[in-house]
């Protein structure tokens, strides 16, 4: 991974173009944990929903609370290390990392919980709605091998292709394919943006595709998809990564703050703890960024101006 530190304006411009993640394990933001200064550093993941959270939080921090905000794009696990070390002040959308939570929240106490984001995330396997109309039973994983030939691509080596995004995302797909004895090959697009491009192209040509995907995500409004029913998730069924044979849970997405910042971050920390919105709110901003091609700053401004009754509660 490349190591970069970027200012608020350039960071969001980079995010809008789908750039890769930075490695913050050794290099800090110049604004993180700045004593006595009205500055905040936010970690932002590469998917557009996370960008939407940060864009709105940044806009309010800057325009309503008078803070200077820096954003740093960093992969999910390194973000926990950066947060623990004070290189960033907050993560606004975490999809569940129990090992990091145990280490940093429960044992080292260098990271503090900041409450629910208000959005429930769910990962799953999806096929396009137009394919379900042709083959209604394709939404049961037990029938996937019967249709494997439909999903073959040049990259899948004679097997059906299961399209994933970035290898850095939370995924059990390789273990699932192996343990469920499916005639499929996991193929990584490389990023959310690249995966969206491939899905859109498949949909434009009405081609079959099977993809790892997640909600909330604005693309469902443009490409209707139906989830494939995997074996039901039960608590602990994914404890051993190599033995996973169950689907993904529904996860209330969480916020985390550096413990020092949580205690001394003043109005900024109080605001981020209260920041809580709905899936619909997040999708509105995500659509403005990813579909209408507004900059994250413009998308945040549009949402903030039209939803004062929502965000004013976060400042009380």
What does it look like?
The structure is a single chain. The protein has 316 residues and is of the alpha/beta class. The chain has 12 helices and 9 strands. Strands 1, 2, 3, 4, 5, 6, 7, 8 and 9 form a 9-stranded mixed beta sheet that branches. Helix 2 crosses helix 10 (279-290). The longest helix is centred in the N-terminal third of the chain and has 16 residues, at 48-63. It is globular and about 60 Å long.
Structure, briefly:
The chain is α/β, with parallel strands linked by helices and 316 residues long.
What is the typical, i.e. mean, pLDDT? 89
Which structural class do the helices and strands define? alpha/beta
Order of helices and strands: HEHEHEHEHEHEHEEEHHHHH
What share of the residues lie within helices? 25-40%
State the distance separating the first and last CA atoms.
Answer: 40 Å
Q: Quick one: overall form?
A: globular
Q: What is the beta-strand fraction?
A: 15-25%
Sheet bearing the most strands, described?
9 strands, mixed
Helix segment tally: 12
SSE arrangement:
Layout: H1 8-16, E1 39-44, H2 48-63, E2 68-73, H3 76-84, E3 90-94, H4 98-107, E4 111-128, H5 129-134, E5 160-164, H6 173-179, E6 184-188, H7 192-204, E7 210-215, E8 225-228, E9 250-258, H8 259-264, H9 266-274, H10 279-290, H11 296-306, H12 308-311
Parallel strand pairs: 1-2, 1-3, 5-6, 5-7
Antiparallel strand pairs: 3-9, 4-7, 4-8, 4-9
Helix pairs in contact: 2-10, 2-11, 10-11
